[in-house]
Amino acid sequence: MNYQVNRWFDGKGHTVMSVTADSGHIARMERHKVTGDVHLLLRRADEVLFGRRENTGFEDGAWHLPSGHLEAGESVVEAVVREAAEEIGVRIELADVQFSHVMHNSSSGGRMAFFFTVRSWRGEPMNLEPDKCSGLDWFAMDALPDRMISYCRTAIQHIAKQDPFSTFGW
Fold this sequence. Notes:
elongated
């Protein structure tokens, strides 16, 4: 079956879309809403800091980067700085946050995952969320842990190749 996508503006600043199939059926589509995630690659030479997930109900036992959701009223850079302080107790200056990658991930209906690299911070990383994380450890970029959340591994592979954008699961 072939589809034709039609887009127009509703006069209120919103884009409206409809899809017409060969059968003549028209389906009106709503604007897609995404959740924003931020991920921190805290770099020490060739190593990256990971936490082992515990009691989260999703991928428990897997290694993952310090991460979290974007909150209303904050930029993605402010979010990664906040998450670093909340999860691992390090202080990062906004100027020390370097964009690494953005991934459009299909999970939960669609997420935008922003990955940032930081090589300079204050404080020693420590596990401030022992109810969600069983421990922290450093891994070389070319020797990642066997058990990782798959989209994170894929993003790190793109980062290693300096690819700024990817999709996952679509």
